[in-house]
Structure formats: C-alpha cells, structure tokens
Amino acid sequence: MAYKIPLFNLNFDEREAKAAYDTIKSGWISTGPKCAELEDMFAKMLGAKYAVSVTNCTDALHLCCLLCGFGPGDEVICPSLTFAASANCIRYAGATPVFADIVGPEHINLDSADIERKITPKTKGIVVVHMAGYPAKLDEIMAIAKKHNLKVVEDACHGPLSEYKGKKLGTIGDCSAFSFFSNKNISTGEGGMFVTNSEELASKAKLMRSHGMTTMSYQRASGHATAYDIVELGYNFRMDDIRASIAIEQLKKLPEDLNKRMAVRKRYVENLSKIKGVVVPFANCTEFTSNYIMPVVLTQGSKEDRDAIREKIHAAGIQTSVHYPAIHKFSIYKDYGAVLPQTEYVTDHEITLPMYAALTMEQVDFICETINKAING
Ligand SMILES: *Cc1c(COP(=O)(O)O)cnc(C)c1O
pLDDT tens digits, residue range 176-190? Predict the structure, then answer.
C-alpha cells in the first residue's frame, strides 16, 4: 500500500542526476577528485580538521573502533536504543559491547550515571549515539571519558550540522561516523564519512579504507605515484566519485532542508504538547538540530497497544516506524544479559512519525489529529 504521507521523502532533483551524469562522462568514476572535493566540503561544514569518505557509516564506525584501539578483551559502552551497527562495530574490532541505559522518554540518549555504573577495568571506550540528531550529554560523557581514560566514538549518523554548545556533532569525541544511506539527511544510496580532528587517525583511516595501501589508483593514474606498499591489514571501504558527486549536491541543499525540518518539528511539538498520552523526546532542546526523525513516546499501555495505535495511524494513510527495537533483545545479543528499564520502556512505546522538509503544516496538523484520535478516541 502506498501511504498518502510517507515516513521520509528523498530530496532529489535534476541536480543529483546531472552531477552523477557529469562524473560518468568525466571518465573517472572510482575514488578520485569528487571524493576529495566532498571530504573538503564536509570537513569545512563541520569545522572539523579531517573527513575521510567511505562506503557507509557501518564501515566508518568499524574504522573508528579499530583506530581507537578497541580489541579482544576490551569492553566498550554503547546504547541499545540505536541501530545495530552502533554495537556491531565494537565486535568487528574484537571487543565486547556493554549496553548502557538511556535517561528516559524525555531524553532518549545515554544516561551518564549508567555509563559510570558499567565501567570496569576492561572498559576502553564509549560509542555515543545522537538520536534523531539531538545531542547526547556530551559534557558529562567527555568528563567521564577523561576521568577513566576512555576513547569516545560519536555515531553521528542522525546529526549532520546538529550542534552542541556551539560545536557540531561529530567533532567532539575522538572520531565520528556519518551515513549517506538513502533515508538519512544526506542521501547517496549508500555512503558514509569518517571524521576526526586527529591527523594520525585521519591518515590511518585513509590507509585502512584501501587495503593498507600507501597509494591509491587515482594517484597512480594521474602520474603522482608508480608503486605501492601494503603496510597494514586494511579493507576496501572506499566511496566512489559517482556517489561523492551526488553527496556534494546534497550538502549544498542541507542547510535549507534542515531549516524546513526545524519548522516542521516546531509545529509537531506545538500540536503534540496539547495531546494527552504522548511525550516528545528532547522537546526542550534549544540547539540547532538535523531532525533526522520525529520520535514520540506513549505514556501508557503495552507494546501491543502501541502497535494497535500504529495500525490506526496507517489506516489514515500515514506511515510510521519504530526507532528502534532494542539491540540487547535481538537473538545475537540477548545472552549478554543487559537489563535496561528505560530503553525497554521507550522501545516498546515509541512511534516514529513522518519527517522531511517538504511536509506541509496542514499535513503535520492532520498527523497530530490522527494520533490524538488513535490514542484518546
Ligand atoms: C543508519 C545508521 C547506521 C548505519 O549507517 P549505514 O550507512 O547504513 O551503514 C549506524 N548508526 C545509526 C545510528 C544509524 O542510524
């Protein structure tokens, strides 16, 4: 069934099509000048020193965990209320994820007190997620990291251009990861970015994304290099110039897209604050944020009641989703034995509403009326 109001709407037009066409016609389609241009734009946009383009955010997170030195025998703290890649990346490096709880329905990011409770002599780092593009409690988390000598990886997939006290998300921890998957704020189909202010981590990331090779094909084809050595066990995590050229067009559109999302969000919060039975996470946040998604949390009922409410909303032609099922309940993580009451409450009571720049205020009003009827009859 096609929904009248989908969850997400791709902000693509002739500009992305032309950029891809031009790159194809240029004769160079793999990692090359477009990737370099994108990396430069991305780093400038964030006020970060280095950005390294990669195949997707999962691979960027994998690099983050490797380069932070996480390995066998180490524990790394992460949330369970996130996409599975935020925990899987810790295991790719050979370390063990330790799930910490979120604060609660009003703040669905990591709870600093629970992070501290989960620290052991084996703890080496924290993977922080900024849900929906809303900043985690980074002052507290960076202070904990400093005190216990931990590395901080920011999974900033939801938050390009989101801010925390004057800094962009993804520039505060040791390194960070962004996604250009089709439904993210910046879309290239598949794609991602590794970001850091450390020259050492950036040059290692460049090495590891291409088999640990000391030169790239483009450098050899353009006569800048004639040979290479392999100095690390690397991967093929390279982005290509076709996707990079699409990402460049997406970046140009991003500020306006996010401003429109801010207006949509404001209308949602105004409407939803009058509806009994729903909490809007981060409702009091005054930072500039990307509003990647629009989560709400029901204040009562069971998981089945939540699912029945979603069915009623779908029947009105509005698509919804759930961000996310708790990771610690999945088959591959359930034996870790994590007990996370706030995460469990939110994952069973959350509904994700449509969010994109082209949503009209009338559509937002209609969505909110539909929710009110679905919850309160
Ligand atoms: C989408 C997403 C990822 C994975 O991104 P890919 O580019 O699809 O690999 C990781 N973490 C979070 C929080 C995400 O939303």
Answer: 999 999 999 999 999
Do β-strands 102-104 and 163-164 pair in parallel, antiparallel, or remain unpaired? Answer: unpaired
**Ligand 1 center to 334 CA (angstroms):** 21
In short, whether 129's Cβ falls inside 6 Å of ligand 1 is: yes
CA gap 54, 62 in Å, rounded: 11
Q: Give the distance (Å) from ligand 1 centre to CA of residue 93.
A: 17
Q: How far is the CA of 4 from the centre of ligand 1 (A)?
A: 26
Atom of ligand 1 nearest to the CA of 183: 1
Q: What is the pLDDT of residues 91-118, one digit of tens each?
A: 999 999 999 999 999 999 999 999 999 9
What number of CA atoms fall less than 13 Å from residue 56's CA on the CB side? 10
Q: Report pLDDT digits (tens) over 20-61.
A: 999 999 999 999 999 999 999 999 999 999 999 999 999 999
CA of 293 from ligand 1 middle (Å) equals: 13
User: What residues pair up with 78 in beta bridges, in sequence order?
Assistant: 99
Give the chain's domains with CATH numbers.
14-251 (3.40.640.10), 254-376 (3.90.1150.10)
